[in-house]
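Complex record, two chains
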Amino acid sequence: MSDFQLHSQLQKDCFVLGKFELCQVLLMNDSQFPWFILVPQRKDIREIYELTDAEQIMLIRESSYLAKKLAEIFNADKLNVAAIGNIVPQLHLHHVVRYENDKAWATPVWGKFAAVPYTEQQRIVLLDRLKSLDLL
Amino acid sequence: MSDFQLHSQLQKDCFVLGKFELCQVLLMNDSQFPWFILVPQRKDIREIYELTDAEQIMLIRESSYLAKKLAEIFNADKLNVAAIGNIVPQLHLHHVVRYENDKAWATPVWGKFAAVPYTEQQRIVLLDRLKSLDLL
C-alpha cells in the first residue's frame, strides 16, 4: 500500500475527496453528472479478481456504502457502478448518479460527452453536500 | 428466491447458461463480444447495495470467479464489469470480454451497436468453450 500511487490520468481528471479503508475516493471533475470513483490503494491491480478475497469484500462494502449514500444525498433515479479500465489500467470503480432527465439518459455516460469542469462555487456547494460520507 | 423471475427483456436478449449459488448466468445473444450477465436470484432488487451483506459477498465472489474464468478462456485483454440498469430495472451485472482490436475498443459496448445474434454453430462452439465454468 505504501507503494500505491494514483494513476496520472485520474489525478488529472479528478479531485481526491478522501479515503475509505481500502479505496481512495475521487470526484470526477465533470459537473454534468455526480460522478465518483473508488480506487483500491493497491499496486499493479487491473481487475477486481486480482484483489485478495478480503480486499474484494472491502471493495464491495465500500462501493455499496458509497452508492447508497450518493443515492440519498442526490436523490438519484439510478446508480451506475462499473469497472471498465480500457484506457486507465489502474483498477477504478465508477459510481455515477443518474437521473431520468440527465443529458445522457438512458445510455451510460462513458465516452459520451467532454467533461464540463466544476466552478469553484459549484465545488464548494458540492463538497458541503458530501460531508455525510465521513471520509478519512 | 422462489419468487424470483428473470426480467422479460433479459429473457429476450440472452441465453440462460446455468447458475451459481446466488446468480443466474446469462449469455448475451451478441456474437460481436463475449458478453455474460449475472442476475442475483432475488426479487425486486435494483441496486447492489439493496442485497444483504452476505449476498453482496456472494455476488463479488461469483463475479470474480466468472471474470477470471472468462479472461482465461477467451484470453481477454480486459474485462468490463458493470451494473447499469437504466433500462432493465432488475439488478444484473455485465461481464464483457474486451480486446484491444474489438469493434468498440476503447469505449464501452453498451448502447453502441445492434446485437448480431449467434448462429447455431457458433453457439455450439462457444458452449463447449464454457464447460469449465462448472455451472449448476
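Note: Helices of chain B lie at 8-13, 53-74, 120-129.
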